[in-house]
Each structure stands twice: as C-alpha cells, then as structure tokens.
Amino acid sequence: MSRVTSTRYLLPLVATGLLLVGCTSDGGDASGGGDGAKLTTTTTTASNSGAPLPRYADYETTSYAEPSHWVCRPDADDICDESLDATVVAEDGTLSVEPFKAADDPAIDCFYVYPTISRDETTFADWELSPDEEGYVTVNQAARLQSQCRLFAPGYRQITLGGLGAARSGDLEADGDPFADVLDAFKAYMANDNEGRGFVLIGHSQGSSMLNQLIAAEIDPNDDVRALLVGAYLAGSSVTVPEGEIVGGDFANVALCTSEGEVGCVTTWATFRDTAPPPANSFFGAPREGEGVAGCVNPAAPGDTSDLDGYFPANAGASILSSQGASDDGARWVDASAGEITTPFVRITDLVSGACATKDGFNYLEVTINADPDRPRADDIPGDLSAEWGLHLVDVSLVMGDIVRSVESQASAYATN
Prior knowledge:
The chain has helices at residues 7-19, 134-141, 164-169, 178-192, 206-219, 223-226, 400-416, and strands at residues 2-3, 42-43, 70-72, 76-77, 86-89, 95-98, 108-113, 149-154, 173-174, 199-204, 229-235, 240-241, 265-269, 271-273, 293-294, 306-307, 310-313, 345-348, 352-359, 362-369. The radius of gyration is 20 Å and the shape is globular. By secondary structure, the protein is of the alpha/beta class. Strand 5 and strand 6 (95-98) form a beta hairpin. It has one domain. Mean pLDDT is 87; it is low at 1-36 and 44-48. The chain is built from 7 helices and 20 strands. The strands form 6 sheets. The protein has a 6-stranded mixed beta sheet, sandwiched between helices.
C-alpha cells in the first residue's frame, strides 16, 4: 500500500470535502451513497487525424478504455450535451435568453478534473459516476467550455466524504490513489485522443490539487508536453511561487499568467468577499506547507480589477454541490414582476467586480458586490460558508464567462505561435 498524496496536496482536499457534509443534489442524506443513479454515456466513433507524442504512442490505459469511466467526452452522448442556455439578467431586471452552441470543430481540447463531490461510503470513490454528483458539477464548471474546445472529463476514484476522517488525521495509507487515476486518464487522452492538439487544464479544489501534481510530474519537466499546454485554470487551491515571482515553487517552468491571451501559463485563485478577507485559519490563499506564497491571477483581467462574468444555476438557492440546495428559501435572481427564468442557467455580468489582493500573508481574489437594492435584480450572490472557506463554492461560477473568454484568447494566440 502507498500513501495517496503529500500533505501539500492533501490539505486542500480535506477542506473541500468538509464542505460537502450535509449537502446532496436531491435533498437526501449525505451520509449514504446517493440515489444510486448512474451516469451513462453512449459512445460514437472518433476520427484520428494526427499522431500522439512519441512518449505516449505505446501507452495502454489501465482504466480509461471503459467509456463509463468518463463523465464527458466529445465522442459520446453524455450529460455535457444537455442544454446550457442561459438567461442574461440585467440590473434593471430585463431578461434575455442566450442560447448555447458547442463549437463544431474546435482547434484545442480541455481536460477537466472535478472537486470533491462523491458521497460513496468508502474511503475512495468507486467507478459509479452519478449525474447528481460528478455529472452535475462537471456541467456547472466545465461543459460551457465546449464553445471553445473538445471536453474530456474523466471520472476518478477521489477521496470521499467517508474518507475525510483519515484525511484529517494525515493517515491515508490505503489501496487508493486518486492521482494515479488522473495521471492514467491524462496519458490515455494523450495516447488516444490528443493527436498533437493544444490542451487546456481546468480543475477546482481536489481537482486543482490533482492537476497541480499532473503539471509538476508530467508537463512542467517535459518540453514536448509543455509545448501543447495552452493554459491551466486551478481554482480553489494553491499554486506556490516565491514571493514576488511568477515561476518557481511548485513548477520550475510553468509560470503564472500575467496578461490575457498569454499561452502556457497558470491562472489560479481562491475567492473571498472584500468585507470578509481570509482569517488566520483560512483554508485558502496561502501555501499548505513550505516556503513561498500562494499565487493569484484574476481570471477576468490578470493584474487588474474587472467586472466578473458569472454563470450560475437558474435556481438561486442551488450551488455546484446541490441542484436543490436552499431552493425553498425564496431566493430569486430577479423579482417575479420582471418575468420568469426558463433556462437552466443565468448569466450575471455587472454585479460583481474582482481583483487579486494581499492581506496578512494571504493572496486571494477579492470580490466586491456592486448592487442596487432598489432594482429588481438580486443584489447579492450565493456561496458563503464560514470565514475560512470564503466563496469557495462559487470560485468557478463567478468567473465562468471570463474563463471561456480567456480560453478563446489563449487558443487564438496558440494557433499563431
């Protein structure tokens, strides 16, 4: 048996998992294994027009030849093909529908790893991927990127809620290794699907921790793989750099992004309100161990302040963890007098602004609510937990539109390099 991961990677997983206690997508008991529903996919034939990098040409996956081990793939009919239409909610309450269309032939790929979400009763998740857990969060955090890239979202046997006791004690000696799954999935993708295309990495919390390890082990030290990295988005975790620097620490070669359209760099952030900065015991905004500081890059405008372009569930009481959530508390995105929202998502572009901030040794994305309580639109956002968590639940939702735009800009720059 082998230790799953180092403390530096483990602690963010503990933090994220604690969020999920008591939260379910159907209002049920979080201590069980969910409602037993299984996320299924129907595969189609994929074309292979290019060759994989030589280092992956002979790779044989141990798990990912099985279609059911993927949440979403471009050659499958799956949950990411469901409607992503959004209603744009203006400050004055005007509603307009924004249809979603996936790109017909995108030039790049996206590889997404989801956060802690499994309610399996075991220490590590099984391969039964649920539409209410792994599927639901993938739709919220990654499916919209299909307007810019082919989306590959592997399932993996992550640390579950039931495994958090061992995680908190620092004793995860077990026959489980989530990173081994993520590495296998990435190598399987590189061997069978990549075809020499540029790729974007995106993850949140436990998923970001897995991608941090992936970059350190597989991408940062290898020039040929690094040349295909269009960009990486590591939300709700920590990428360590030396103070005052943009590279070093976790990665020797892959730097933090400093401008929009910059290729091969990392965008990383953890979100807190301007009225509630990270407390001394915050789970985010500082390295988990060792020297250096946590990097912060504003996904909306690196190095600057900008309005944030967010996509949220149409149910204003829901979150990435629960399609129901606090749905009975009367929360609404707009007064009923302004009309009804009939799309699965809403888009809010001018309610929240954000910029990276430094306070008491923490680097984080500081957001400000720019609300007018006299207008019919909601004057706040969901996502608050205790002070240590900040706005962890909406790290990605708050900037989903900005991520899509940034990926588009990076893809354009990558194509001209």
